[in-house]
Amino acid sequence: MTSRTNSQAIVAALAKPDYLPPGTTVAFMEQSRDHPTVVAILFVGSMVLLVVALRCYARLFIVERFGLDDWLALSTLIPYIAFMSLCIVLIHLGSGRHLAYIQYILENATINTTEVLDFCAHITYTTALLTCRLSGLAFYARITEGSQRLIWTIRAAAGFMIMAYLPQVFLIIFHCLPITGFWPYSFQPEVNNYTCLQWGEVYVTNSVISLLCDMVLLAIPVPLITRLKVDSATKIRLFLVLMPGLLVVAISCTRMYLVIVGQWEADESWSYEPLLAVEVSEIGSTLVALSAPALKPFFGSLFASFDRTSVSSAYYFRSRSGDRGNKARDDGLGIELDNRYDCAPGFGLAAGAKTEHGPVSTPMGVIPETVEDDAAGYRPEELLYSATIHAHDGRDPSIGSDISQQPMIRYARDFTVSHEVINAAMHAR
User: Fold this and answer.
1) Phi and psi at residue 386, in whole multiples of 5°?
2) What Pfam families would the database entry show (predicted)?
């Protein structure tokens, strides 16, 4: 849906002496970015809907666990779809054309309509960003259940984002007194009916607040990843998976630039359509990035490095003496086991877990009393195929390189199982 250029009105306006600014031409007045902007919005929106749909499918039917972060991500689609729809309508009405076209060709009633729609669109946009960010915080909270310090940090971040949302919305609502949805241009007759803040002042302020929220969201995963005792390459891969704020911060900076251009350049409306496309991308990129870990069941190989460090710590084992093992400490992205317990080859396989060889029975007398979903929400049996076990027999660390020859081994930290381990366990039976 793109705006129709009123060519007859343009020709008529050019025929009036000294009516249009000097140097104005028909070609200039007919310039439009409508089509590529609408295509970009629809492309980004379709991609986001697909990713969120895959996320919901994976969480509901594969993982069979739908958390608060998933509900928040799903609820974000309501204001997001509404915002995209309003953007397309605004483009259709001509909001992103040259200022001269808006001033001299569009009817005043149409301009007023675009101002009210822009008012509604940016309240919707701000709301969508809030729910999306809260979804990210809920995800971080889910994978940091074992760290009270991080939980409180995440709660404080959520409080900050909610408090930051209020001035953003209030600035939009009270941009003019008396309160109105209009935001009159200087050439409109309504400009004398209201006392208004400048559009750019409000939107730059909101952009700065939004950027601060993005920086907070960006900072949360840092302590999660830095605490892991893994190599630098793995940490870098985890940063790419768990730090969606990197892309969003870049998009937020781009949005701020477009707002500044839109307010303080002479042709202020010409940057409006790129601004709408960037805002759609800002919400969309956050949703996509925060949904990436949930897509692991579909794209397991891409998350191999994530598997090696994000396996469940919600396991209990019995030692050979029958004592119950301590619960492993969970930092959300990796595990550390305080004690070592004897177990047979193939440990870590839940009873009945599905492998390429069929179901696996409980290993030799080593009974996993409870097998829960891991902190990231993936079932243990989904994470059995990537990393190798670091194991030894309790006496000589060199022993255990060929675990199929060891009737009993001890495990230390790594809790994922490779194909070799599974094969050895199956053949040992």
Assistant:
1) -120, -50
2) Fung_rhodopsin (PF20684)
And the tokens for 54? 């895959």
Sequential pLDDT tens for the chain (429 residues)? 666 677 889 999 998 888 999 889 999 999 999 999 999 999 999 999 999 999 999 999 988 889 999 999 999 999 999 999 999 999 999 999 999 999 999 999 999 999 999 999 999 999 999 999 999 999 888 887 667 888 899 999 999 999 999 999 999 999 999 999 999 999 999 999 999 999 889 999 999 999 999 889 888 877 777 777 777 887 777 777 666 667 788 899 999 999 988 888 889 899 999 999 999 999 999 899 888 888 877 765 444 544 444 333 333 333 333 333 333 333 333 333 333 333 333 334 443 444 444 444 433 333 333 333 443 443 333 333 333 333 333 333 333 333 333 333 333 333 334 444 445 544 554
Q: Which helix (H) or strand (E) holds 329?
A: strand 329-330
**Bond from prior residue into 368 cis (ω within 30 degrees of 0):** no
Structural domain including 55 reads: 7-299
Q: Are residues 274 and 342 in the same domain?
A: no
What total number of domains does the chain contain? Answer: 2
> Helix H segments across 94-198?
99-104, 108-142, 148-173
Task: Indicate the pTM of the whole model.
Answer: 0.70
Asked if residues 376 and 332 have their Cβ atoms less than 8 Å apart, the reply is yes
The burial of 170, by beta-carbon neighbours within 10 Å (0-12 exposed, 13-18 middle, 19 or more buried), is given as: exposed
- 241 and 342 share one domain: no
- What distance in Å separates the CA atoms of residue 429 and residue 425, rounded to the nearest whole number? 7
Name the residue among 322, 296, 298, 319 with its Cα closest to residue 309. 296
Give me the torsion for CA of 6, 9, 14, 15, rounded to 10°: 150
Residue 379 lies in a domain: yes
HSE-CB for 114 with a 13 A CA cutoff:
24
212 and 139 assigned to the same domain: yes
* Same domain membership, residue 71 and residue 134: yes
CB 255 within 8 A of CB 247: no
Check: CB of residue 260 under 8 Å from CB of residue 341: no
Q: Are residues 34 and 71 in the same domain?
A: yes
